[in-house]
Protein backbone atom coordinates (compact mmCIF):
# COMPACT_ATOMS: atom_id res chain seq x y z
CA UNK A 1 0.00 0.00 0.00
CA UNK A 2 1.23 3.50 -0.84
CA UNK A 3 1.27 6.66 1.32
CA UNK A 4 2.75 10.14 0.94
CA UNK A 5 3.54 12.77 3.58
CA UNK A 6 4.69 16.37 3.08
CA UNK A 7 8.02 17.35 4.63
CA UNK A 8 10.79 19.83 3.87
CA UNK A 9 14.52 20.06 3.15
CA UNK A 10 17.05 22.82 3.63
CA UNK A 11 19.98 23.99 1.55
CA UNK A 12 21.60 27.11 2.97
CA UNK A 13 18.87 29.69 3.55
CA UNK A 14 16.55 28.05 1.03
CA UNK A 15 13.94 25.47 2.01
CA UNK A 16 12.52 23.08 -0.57
CA UNK A 17 9.53 20.71 -0.38
CA UNK A 18 10.19 16.99 0.16
CA UNK A 19 7.59 14.28 -0.27
CA UNK A 20 8.16 11.20 1.87
CA UNK A 21 6.72 8.37 -0.21
CA UNK A 22 6.32 4.91 1.34
CA UNK A 23 5.29 1.74 -0.45
CA UNK A 24 4.70 -1.46 1.56
CA UNK A 25 4.35 -4.53 -0.62
CA UNK A 26 4.53 -8.30 -0.38
CA UNK A 27 7.93 -9.97 -0.64
CA UNK A 28 10.99 -10.71 1.39
CA UNK A 29 11.34 -8.30 4.33
CA UNK A 30 13.56 -5.35 3.46
CA UNK A 31 13.86 -1.62 3.85
CA UNK A 32 15.14 0.50 0.95
CA UNK A 33 15.59 4.25 1.43
CA UNK A 34 16.31 6.25 -1.72
CA UNK A 35 16.40 9.92 -2.71
CA UNK A 36 20.00 10.98 -1.91
CA UNK A 37 19.79 10.53 1.89
CA UNK A 38 22.81 11.22 4.11
CA UNK A 39 23.84 8.93 6.98
CA UNK A 40 21.49 10.55 9.50
CA UNK A 41 18.54 10.02 7.15
CA UNK A 42 19.49 6.40 6.45
CA UNK A 43 19.56 5.67 10.18
CA UNK A 44 15.94 6.85 10.44
CA UNK A 45 14.68 3.32 9.75
CA UNK A 46 16.19 2.07 13.02
CA UNK A 47 14.86 4.97 15.07
CA UNK A 48 11.40 4.65 13.50
CA UNK A 49 11.31 0.88 14.04
CA UNK A 50 12.09 1.25 17.77
CA UNK A 51 9.74 4.24 18.17
CA UNK A 52 6.83 2.33 16.61
CA UNK A 53 7.40 -0.74 18.77
CA UNK A 54 7.76 1.27 22.00
CA UNK A 55 4.64 3.31 21.18
CA UNK A 56 2.39 0.27 20.81
CA UNK A 57 2.42 -0.11 17.02
CA UNK A 58 3.85 -2.80 14.80
CA UNK A 59 6.60 -2.40 12.24
CA UNK A 60 5.58 -4.08 8.96
CA UNK A 61 7.48 -7.25 8.09
CA UNK A 62 7.20 -6.63 4.36
CA UNK A 63 9.09 -5.11 1.50
CA UNK A 64 9.32 -1.39 2.34
CA UNK A 65 10.49 1.20 -0.16
CA UNK A 66 10.88 4.82 0.92
CA UNK A 67 11.56 7.62 -1.56
CA UNK A 68 12.44 11.19 -0.61
CA UNK A 69 11.37 13.24 -3.60
CA UNK A 70 12.81 15.10 -5.42
CA UNK A 71 15.47 12.46 -5.79
CA UNK A 72 18.13 14.81 -7.22
CA UNK A 73 18.49 16.93 -4.06
CA UNK A 74 20.51 15.69 -1.11
CA UNK A 75 18.60 15.24 2.15
CA UNK A 76 20.35 15.57 5.49
CA UNK A 77 19.52 15.38 9.17
CA UNK A 78 17.06 13.45 11.32
CA UNK A 79 14.04 15.66 10.53
CA UNK A 80 12.44 12.93 8.37
CA UNK A 81 11.87 10.53 11.28
CA UNK A 82 8.39 11.84 12.07
CA UNK A 83 7.01 12.01 8.50
CA UNK A 84 8.44 8.55 7.78
CA UNK A 85 6.71 7.09 10.82
CA UNK A 86 3.36 8.66 9.89
CA UNK A 87 3.68 7.45 6.29
CA UNK A 88 4.40 3.89 7.49
CA UNK A 89 1.32 3.90 9.71
CA UNK A 90 -0.83 5.18 6.84
CA UNK A 91 0.53 2.68 4.31
CA UNK A 92 -0.10 -0.26 6.66
CA UNK A 93 -3.62 0.88 7.58
CA UNK A 94 -2.82 1.32 11.30
CA UNK A 95 -4.23 4.87 11.10
CA UNK A 96 -6.44 6.75 8.67
CA UNK A 97 -6.27 10.51 8.29
CA UNK A 98 -6.46 13.23 5.65
CA UNK A 99 -3.04 14.92 5.70
CA UNK A 100 -2.94 16.66 2.32
CA UNK A 101 -2.62 20.09 3.98
CA UNK A 102 -0.19 18.99 6.72
CA UNK A 103 3.59 18.91 6.99
CA UNK A 104 5.66 16.88 9.46
CA UNK A 105 9.15 17.58 10.76
CA UNK A 106 10.98 16.06 13.69
CA UNK A 107 13.53 13.64 15.08
CA UNK A 108 12.43 10.64 17.16
CA UNK A 109 14.00 8.94 20.13
CA UNK A 110 13.82 5.17 20.46
CA UNK A 111 11.08 5.58 23.06
CA UNK A 112 8.86 7.52 20.63
CA UNK A 113 9.47 10.99 22.05
CA UNK A 114 10.35 13.88 19.75
CA UNK A 115 13.60 15.81 19.68
CA UNK A 116 14.24 19.33 18.29
CA UNK A 117 15.65 20.00 14.82
CA UNK A 118 17.36 22.90 13.06
CA UNK A 119 16.02 25.32 10.46
CA UNK A 120 12.33 25.25 11.38
CA UNK A 121 11.56 28.89 10.54
CA UNK A 122 12.71 28.93 6.87
CA UNK A 123 10.96 25.59 6.33
CA UNK A 124 7.76 26.91 7.92
CA UNK A 125 7.91 29.97 5.64
CA UNK A 126 8.15 27.69 2.60
CA UNK A 127 5.29 25.53 3.88
CA UNK A 128 3.07 28.60 4.10
CA UNK A 129 4.02 29.57 0.53
CA UNK A 130 2.97 26.07 -0.60
CA UNK A 131 -0.48 26.60 0.91
CA UNK A 132 -0.10 24.04 3.71
CA UNK A 133 -2.20 24.79 6.77
CA UNK A 134 -0.94 22.45 9.48
CA UNK A 135 2.60 21.94 10.73
CA UNK A 136 3.54 19.23 13.21
CA UNK A 137 6.80 19.90 15.07
CA UNK A 138 8.68 18.78 18.19
CA UNK A 139 7.59 20.69 21.28
CA UNK A 140 10.90 22.58 21.53
CA UNK A 141 10.49 23.99 17.98
CA UNK A 142 6.79 24.83 18.14
CA UNK A 143 7.05 28.45 19.30
CA UNK A 144 9.57 29.18 16.55
CA UNK A 145 7.26 27.82 13.87
CA UNK A 146 4.25 29.59 15.37
CA UNK A 147 5.77 33.00 14.56
CA UNK A 148 4.02 32.85 11.18
CA UNK A 149 0.38 33.68 10.70
CA UNK A 150 -2.00 31.50 8.65
CA UNK A 151 -0.22 28.35 9.82
CA UNK A 152 -1.42 26.13 12.64
CA UNK A 153 1.57 24.68 14.47
CA UNK A 154 1.04 21.62 16.64
CA UNK A 155 3.66 20.80 19.30
CA UNK A 156 4.25 17.04 19.30
CA UNK A 157 5.77 15.52 22.43
CA UNK A 158 5.52 11.83 21.51
CA UNK A 159 4.24 9.42 18.89
CA UNK A 160 1.19 8.24 20.94
CA UNK A 161 0.12 11.87 21.45
CA UNK A 162 0.39 12.55 17.71
CA UNK A 163 -1.57 9.45 16.73
CA UNK A 164 -4.31 10.25 19.23
CA UNK A 165 -4.63 13.69 17.62
CA UNK A 166 -4.64 12.38 14.04
CA UNK A 167 -7.30 9.80 14.91
CA UNK A 168 -9.46 12.43 16.60
CA UNK A 169 -9.29 10.91 20.08
CA UNK A 170 -7.41 13.72 21.85
CA UNK A 171 -6.56 17.05 20.24
CA UNK A 172 -3.24 18.87 20.50
CA UNK A 173 -3.66 22.58 21.16
CA UNK A 174 -1.90 24.77 18.53
CA UNK A 175 1.19 26.61 19.72
CA UNK A 176 1.30 30.37 20.14
CA UNK A 177 4.23 32.50 18.96
CA UNK A 178 7.08 32.98 21.38
CA UNK A 179 9.13 36.15 21.47
CA UNK A 180 12.53 36.89 22.93
CA UNK A 181 11.45 40.31 24.07
CA UNK A 182 14.18 42.95 24.43
CA UNK A 183 15.21 43.36 28.02
CA UNK A 184 17.60 45.68 29.77
CA UNK A 185 21.09 44.73 28.60
CA UNK A 186 23.11 43.47 31.59
CA UNK A 187 26.12 45.65 30.71
CA UNK A 188 25.81 49.44 30.70
CA UNK A 189 28.03 52.32 29.62
CA UNK A 190 27.32 53.94 32.98
CA UNK A 191 29.81 51.45 34.46
CA UNK A 192 32.67 52.84 32.34
CA UNK A 193 34.77 55.55 33.95
CA UNK A 194 36.33 58.12 31.65
CA UNK A 195 36.92 57.31 27.95
CA UNK A 196 34.41 59.97 26.82
CA UNK A 197 36.06 60.22 23.38
CA UNK A 198 35.83 56.47 22.87
CA UNK A 199 32.17 56.44 23.92
CA UNK A 200 31.49 59.19 21.42
CA UNK A 201 33.12 57.18 18.65
CA UNK A 202 31.15 54.04 19.56
CA UNK A 203 27.93 56.09 19.55
CA UNK A 204 28.74 57.17 15.99
CA UNK A 205 29.51 53.57 15.03
CA UNK A 206 26.19 52.36 16.46
CA UNK A 207 24.22 55.14 14.78
CA UNK A 208 25.61 54.42 11.31
CA UNK A 209 26.48 50.71 11.51
CA UNK A 210 30.21 51.42 11.04
CA UNK A 211 33.12 49.05 11.61
CA UNK A 212 35.51 49.93 14.44
CA UNK A 213 39.00 49.09 15.65
CA UNK A 214 40.07 49.90 19.21
CA UNK A 215 43.81 50.23 19.90
CA UNK A 216 45.26 50.74 23.34
CA UNK A 217 47.36 49.32 26.20
CA UNK A 218 46.22 46.43 28.40
CA UNK A 219 43.57 47.35 30.94
CA UNK A 220 42.42 50.51 29.19
CA UNK A 221 38.89 49.13 28.73
CA UNK A 222 38.79 48.03 25.07
CA UNK A 223 36.92 44.78 25.72
CA UNK A 224 34.77 46.39 28.39
CA UNK A 225 33.61 49.07 25.96
CA UNK A 226 33.06 46.67 23.06
CA UNK A 227 30.94 44.32 25.16
CA UNK A 228 28.67 47.22 26.07
CA UNK A 229 28.11 48.26 22.47
CA UNK A 230 24.93 46.11 22.09
CA UNK A 231 23.31 48.17 24.85
CA UNK A 232 23.23 51.25 22.58
CA UNK A 233 22.46 49.62 19.24
CA UNK A 234 19.16 50.65 17.63
CA UNK A 235 16.07 48.51 18.10
CA UNK A 236 15.64 45.73 15.54
CA UNK A 237 13.02 46.13 12.83
CA UNK A 238 10.60 43.20 12.21
CA UNK A 239 12.43 42.37 8.97
CA UNK A 240 15.80 42.28 10.75
CA UNK A 241 14.38 40.07 13.50
CA UNK A 242 13.03 37.59 10.96
CA UNK A 243 16.33 37.39 9.04
CA UNK A 244 18.43 36.95 12.18
CA UNK A 245 16.07 34.31 13.56
CA UNK A 246 16.27 32.27 10.35
CA UNK A 247 20.07 32.19 10.43
CA UNK A 248 20.18 31.19 14.10
CA UNK A 249 17.54 28.55 13.43
CA UNK A 250 19.58 27.04 10.59
CA UNK A 251 22.67 26.98 12.79
CA UNK A 252 20.75 25.48 15.73
CA UNK A 253 21.62 28.44 17.95
CA UNK A 254 18.13 29.46 19.06
CA UNK A 255 17.49 29.10 22.76
CA UNK A 256 15.07 26.37 23.77
CA UNK A 257 11.47 27.49 23.37
CA UNK A 258 12.41 30.87 21.90
CA UNK A 259 10.60 32.54 19.06
CA UNK A 260 11.48 35.66 17.10
CA UNK A 261 14.77 37.28 18.15
CA UNK A 262 14.33 40.82 19.43
CA UNK A 263 17.87 41.50 20.65
CA UNK A 264 20.71 42.14 18.24
CA UNK A 265 23.24 39.29 18.25
CA UNK A 266 26.71 39.77 19.72
CA UNK A 267 29.30 37.18 18.68
CA UNK A 268 32.82 37.08 20.12
CA UNK A 269 34.73 34.06 18.73
CA UNK A 270 38.09 33.07 20.21
CA UNK A 271 41.17 33.92 18.16
CA UNK A 272 41.70 30.21 17.44
CA UNK A 273 38.59 30.16 15.22
CA UNK A 274 39.21 28.81 11.71
CA UNK A 275 38.41 30.68 8.50
CA UNK A 276 35.48 28.30 7.94
CA UNK A 277 34.29 29.03 11.48
CA UNK A 278 34.10 32.71 10.61
CA UNK A 279 32.66 32.52 7.10
CA UNK A 280 30.73 29.25 7.36
CA UNK A 281 31.47 25.85 5.91
CA UNK A 282 30.98 22.11 5.92
CA UNK A 283 30.05 19.65 3.18
CA UNK A 284 26.62 21.30 3.24
CA UNK A 285 27.73 24.74 4.46
CA UNK A 286 26.29 26.13 7.66
CA UNK A 287 26.41 29.77 8.78
CA UNK A 288 29.64 30.98 10.37
CA UNK A 289 30.22 33.67 12.99
CA UNK A 290 29.91 36.40 10.36
CA UNK A 291 26.36 35.37 9.49
CA UNK A 292 25.39 34.61 13.08
CA UNK A 293 26.24 38.25 13.83
CA UNK A 294 23.91 39.45 11.02
CA UNK A 295 22.27 42.74 12.10
CA UNK A 296 24.46 42.68 15.20
CA UNK A 297 28.10 42.84 16.28
CA UNK A 298 31.06 40.57 15.54
CA UNK A 299 33.74 41.30 18.16
CA UNK A 300 37.29 40.13 17.47
CA UNK A 301 39.37 40.65 20.60
CA UNK A 302 43.17 40.59 20.25
CA UNK A 303 42.89 40.94 16.47
CA UNK A 304 46.57 40.24 15.61
CA UNK A 305 46.30 36.83 17.33
CA UNK A 306 43.85 35.63 14.70
CA UNK A 307 45.45 33.77 11.81
CA UNK A 308 46.11 35.78 8.67
CA UNK A 309 43.75 33.56 6.66
CA UNK A 310 40.96 34.10 9.21
CA UNK A 311 41.35 37.88 9.08
CA UNK A 312 41.53 38.04 5.30
CA UNK A 313 38.31 36.03 4.91
CA UNK A 314 36.52 39.06 6.39
CA UNK A 315 37.42 41.45 3.58
CA UNK A 316 34.88 40.59 0.89
CA UNK A 317 31.91 40.02 3.28
CA UNK A 318 32.58 43.38 4.95
CA UNK A 319 32.17 45.09 1.59
CA UNK A 320 29.22 43.11 0.20
CA UNK A 321 27.21 42.25 3.32
CA UNK A 322 27.04 38.64 2.13
CA UNK A 323 29.32 35.62 2.30
CA UNK A 324 29.31 33.10 -0.54
CA UNK A 325 30.46 29.50 0.01
CA UNK A 326 31.06 27.29 -3.01
CA UNK A 327 31.02 23.51 -2.89
CA UNK A 328 30.70 20.74 -5.46
CA UNK A 329 26.98 20.42 -4.67
CA UNK A 330 26.39 24.10 -5.31
CA UNK A 331 26.84 27.63 -4.00
CA UNK A 332 25.26 29.04 -0.86
CA UNK A 333 25.04 32.73 0.05
CA UNK A 334 24.40 33.82 3.62
CA UNK A 335 23.74 37.45 4.63
CA UNK A 336 26.23 39.08 6.99
CA UNK A 337 25.33 42.75 7.37
CA UNK A 338 27.47 42.95 10.47
CA UNK A 339 29.25 45.58 12.53
CA UNK A 340 32.83 44.43 12.94
CA UNK A 341 34.46 45.61 16.18
CA UNK A 342 38.11 44.70 16.65
CA UNK A 343 40.41 45.34 19.60
CA UNK A 344 44.18 45.07 19.83
CA UNK A 345 47.28 46.16 21.71
CA UNK A 346 49.81 48.32 19.85
CA UNK A 347 52.61 45.77 20.36
CA UNK A 348 53.26 42.35 21.97
CA UNK A 349 53.87 43.82 25.44
CA UNK A 350 51.06 46.32 24.94
CA UNK A 351 52.87 49.54 25.84
CA UNK A 352 54.24 50.82 22.53
CA UNK A 353 53.54 54.56 22.49
CA UNK A 354 52.47 54.61 26.15
CA UNK A 355 53.30 57.96 27.81
CA UNK A 356 54.38 56.42 31.13
CA UNK A 357 55.29 52.74 30.75
CA UNK A 358 58.23 51.90 28.49
CA UNK A 359 57.76 49.36 25.71
CA UNK A 360 60.01 46.30 26.11
CA UNK A 361 59.58 45.12 22.51
CA UNK A 362 62.20 45.53 19.83
CA UNK A 363 61.34 47.61 16.79
CA UNK A 364 61.22 44.43 14.70
CA UNK A 365 58.81 42.78 17.14
CA UNK A 366 56.51 45.83 17.04
CA UNK A 367 56.62 45.94 13.26
CA UNK A 368 55.88 42.22 12.91
CA UNK A 369 53.01 42.44 15.40
CA UNK A 370 51.34 45.37 13.65
CA UNK A 371 51.88 43.84 10.21
CA UNK A 372 49.66 40.90 11.16
CA UNK A 373 46.75 43.27 10.47
CA UNK A 374 46.92 43.91 6.74
CA UNK A 375 46.44 47.32 5.16
CA UNK A 376 43.40 46.23 3.10
CA UNK A 377 41.64 44.97 6.24
CA UNK A 378 42.52 48.13 8.18
CA UNK A 379 41.20 50.22 5.29
CA UNK A 380 37.78 48.59 5.67
CA UNK A 381 37.45 49.68 9.31
CA UNK A 382 35.63 53.01 9.34
CA UNK A 383 36.70 54.31 12.75
CA UNK A 384 40.19 53.89 14.20
CA UNK A 385 39.94 54.69 17.90
CA UNK A 386 42.75 55.01 20.41
CA UNK A 387 41.81 53.86 23.91
CA UNK A 388 44.30 55.45 26.33
CA UNK A 389 44.93 54.36 29.90
CA UNK A 390 42.37 55.83 32.31
CA UNK A 391 43.75 58.47 34.73
CA UNK A 392 43.36 57.69 38.42
CA UNK A 393 41.05 60.65 39.08
CA UNK A 394 38.54 59.42 36.51
CA UNK A 395 38.91 55.78 37.54
CA UNK A 396 38.23 56.52 41.21
CA UNK A 397 35.39 58.93 40.55
CA UNK A 398 32.07 57.99 42.16
CA UNK A 399 30.11 59.80 39.48
CA UNK A 400 28.58 57.28 37.03
CA UNK A 401 28.94 57.73 33.32
CA UNK A 402 26.08 58.42 30.93
CA UNK A 403 23.75 55.39 30.89
CA UNK A 404 23.28 53.35 27.75
CA UNK A 405 19.57 54.17 27.59
CA UNK A 406 20.29 57.86 26.96
CA UNK A 407 22.88 57.09 24.29
CA UNK A 408 20.50 54.64 22.63
CA UNK A 409 17.84 57.33 22.35
CA UNK A 410 20.20 59.45 20.24
CA UNK A 411 21.19 56.40 18.18
CA UNK A 412 17.54 55.51 17.53
CA UNK A 413 16.82 59.11 16.48
CA UNK A 414 19.73 59.03 14.00
CA UNK A 415 18.60 55.66 12.62
CA UNK A 416 15.08 56.98 12.17
CA UNK A 417 16.49 59.75 9.98
CA UNK A 418 18.32 57.11 7.95
CA UNK A 419 15.20 54.94 7.67
CA UNK A 420 13.30 57.86 6.16
CA UNK A 421 16.18 58.74 3.85
CA UNK A 422 16.65 55.21 2.53
CA UNK A 423 12.99 54.15 2.43
CA UNK A 424 12.41 51.81 -0.50
CA UNK A 425 16.09 51.64 -1.52
CA UNK A 426 17.16 48.50 0.39
CA UNK A 427 19.92 50.46 2.18
CA UNK A 428 19.88 49.70 5.89
CA UNK A 429 22.17 52.41 7.28
CA UNK A 430 24.83 54.95 6.33
CA UNK A 431 27.61 52.35 6.39
CA UNK A 432 25.81 50.50 3.56
CA UNK A 433 25.51 53.42 1.14
CA UNK A 434 26.87 52.17 -2.20
CA UNK A 435 29.66 54.19 -3.79
CA UNK A 436 27.42 55.01 -6.75
CA UNK A 437 25.01 56.92 -4.50
CA UNK A 438 27.43 58.76 -2.21
CA UNK A 439 27.08 61.97 -4.19
CA UNK A 440 23.29 61.80 -3.73
CA UNK A 441 23.26 61.13 0.01
CA UNK A 442 26.47 62.93 1.01
CA UNK A 443 26.57 66.20 -0.97
CA UNK A 444 29.50 68.42 -0.03
CA UNK A 445 29.64 72.20 0.25
CA UNK A 446 32.74 74.02 -0.93
CA UNK A 447 34.26 74.38 2.59
CA UNK A 448 33.77 70.66 3.28
CA UNK A 449 35.16 69.74 -0.13
CA UNK A 450 38.27 71.87 0.52
CA UNK A 451 38.79 70.37 3.99
CA UNK A 452 38.55 66.82 2.67
CA UNK A 453 40.92 67.56 -0.21
CA UNK A 454 43.56 68.84 2.19
CA UNK A 455 43.11 65.79 4.44
CA UNK A 456 43.24 63.40 1.50
CA UNK A 457 46.51 64.85 0.25
CA UNK A 458 48.11 65.13 3.70
CA UNK A 459 47.18 61.66 4.97
CA UNK A 460 47.52 59.79 1.68
CA UNK A 461 44.07 58.24 1.99
CA UNK A 462 42.77 55.56 -0.36
CA UNK A 463 39.57 55.87 -2.37
CA UNK A 464 37.88 53.43 0.01
CA UNK A 465 38.97 55.49 3.02
CA UNK A 466 37.56 58.63 1.38
CA UNK A 467 34.18 56.93 0.86
CA UNK A 468 34.08 55.76 4.45
CA UNK A 469 34.94 59.22 5.76
CA UNK A 470 31.92 60.57 3.88
CA UNK A 471 29.66 57.91 5.39
CA UNK A 472 30.93 58.61 8.92
CA UNK A 473 30.48 62.36 8.39
CA UNK A 474 26.90 61.68 7.23
CA UNK A 475 26.27 59.77 10.49
CA UNK A 476 27.73 62.54 12.64
CA UNK A 477 25.43 65.02 10.90
CA UNK A 478 22.45 62.70 11.52
CA UNK A 479 23.27 62.54 15.23
CA UNK A 480 23.05 66.33 15.31
CA UNK A 481 19.91 66.32 13.19
CA UNK A 482 21.67 68.34 10.51
CA UNK A 483 20.44 67.84 6.92
CA UNK A 484 23.86 68.90 5.57
CA UNK A 485 27.39 67.70 6.25
CA UNK A 486 29.18 70.62 7.86
CA UNK A 487 32.95 71.17 8.11
CA UNK A 488 33.01 70.10 11.75
CA UNK A 489 31.32 66.82 10.85
CA UNK A 490 33.89 66.11 8.16
CA UNK A 491 36.78 67.12 10.45
CA UNK A 492 35.65 64.70 13.15
CA UNK A 493 35.27 61.91 10.58
CA UNK A 494 38.81 62.51 9.30
CA UNK A 495 40.10 62.38 12.86
CA UNK A 496 38.91 58.76 13.11
CA UNK A 497 41.03 57.76 10.09
CA UNK A 498 44.42 59.00 11.30
CA UNK A 499 45.36 56.42 13.93
CA UNK A 500 46.94 54.00 11.45
CA UNK A 501 49.43 56.76 10.67
CA UNK A 502 50.48 56.85 14.32
CA UNK A 503 51.20 53.14 14.57
CA UNK A 504 51.49 51.44 11.16
CA UNK A 505 53.34 54.26 9.39
CA UNK A 506 55.26 55.56 12.37
CA UNK A 507 59.05 55.64 12.32
CA UNK A 508 59.97 52.91 14.79
CA UNK A 509 62.88 53.35 17.24
CA UNK A 510 66.13 51.61 16.32
Explain this structure.
The protein has 510 residues and is of the alpha/beta class. Helices cover 37% and strands 18% of the residues. The strands form 7 sheets. A 5-stranded parallel sheet has the order 13-16-19-11-20. β1 and β2 form a beta hairpin. α7 packs across α20, α19 packs parallel to α21 and α20 packs across α21. It is elongated. The model has no long low-confidence stretch (mean pLDDT 89).
Which terms summarize this structure?
510 residues; alpha/beta; four-stranded mixed β-sheet; 20 strands
Quote the beta fraction: 15-25%
Outline type: elongated
Instruction: Tell me the number of strands.
Output: 20
Mean model confidence by pLDDT? 89
Summarize, please:
The protein is an alpha/beta fold. It is built from 22 helices and 20 strands.
Secondary-structure map with pairings?
Elements: E1 2-11, E2 14-25, E3 30-34, H1 39-42, H2 44-54, E4 63-69, H3 81-91, E5 102-104, E6 107-108, E7 114-115, H4 120-129, E8 134-138, H5 139-145, E9 152-156, H6 159-166, E10 179-180, H7 196-208, E11 212-215, H8 222-227, H9 238-251, E12 260-261, E13 266-267, H10 275-279, E14 280-281, E15 286-287, H11 289-292, E16 297-300, H12 308-312, H13 315-320, E17 322-327, E18 330-335, E19 339-344, H14 363-371, H15 375-379, E20 383-386, H16 392-395, H17 404-421, H18 438-441, H19 446-459, H20 463-480, H21 487-495, H22 499-503
Parallel strand pairs: 3-4, 5-8, 8-9, 10-12, 11-19, 11-20, 13-16, 16-19
Antiparallel strand pairs: 1-2, 2-4, 6-7, 14-15, 17-18
Helix pairs in contact: 2-3, 7-17, 7-20, 17-20, 19-21, 20-21
Amino acid sequence: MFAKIHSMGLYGMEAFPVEVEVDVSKGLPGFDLVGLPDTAVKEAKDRVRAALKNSGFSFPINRITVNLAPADKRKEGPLYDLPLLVALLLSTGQIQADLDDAMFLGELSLSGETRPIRGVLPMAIEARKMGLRRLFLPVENAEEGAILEDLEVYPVASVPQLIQHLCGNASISPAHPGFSRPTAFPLDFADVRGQSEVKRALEIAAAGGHNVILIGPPGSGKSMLAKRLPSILPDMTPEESMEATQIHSIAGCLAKGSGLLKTRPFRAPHHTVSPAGLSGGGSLPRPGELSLAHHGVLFLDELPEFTRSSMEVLRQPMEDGTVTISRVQGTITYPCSTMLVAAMNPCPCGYFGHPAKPCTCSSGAVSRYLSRVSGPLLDRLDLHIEVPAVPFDELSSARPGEPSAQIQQRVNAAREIQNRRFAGTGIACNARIPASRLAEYCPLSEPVHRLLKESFDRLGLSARAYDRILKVARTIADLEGSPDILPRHAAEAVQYRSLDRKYWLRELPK
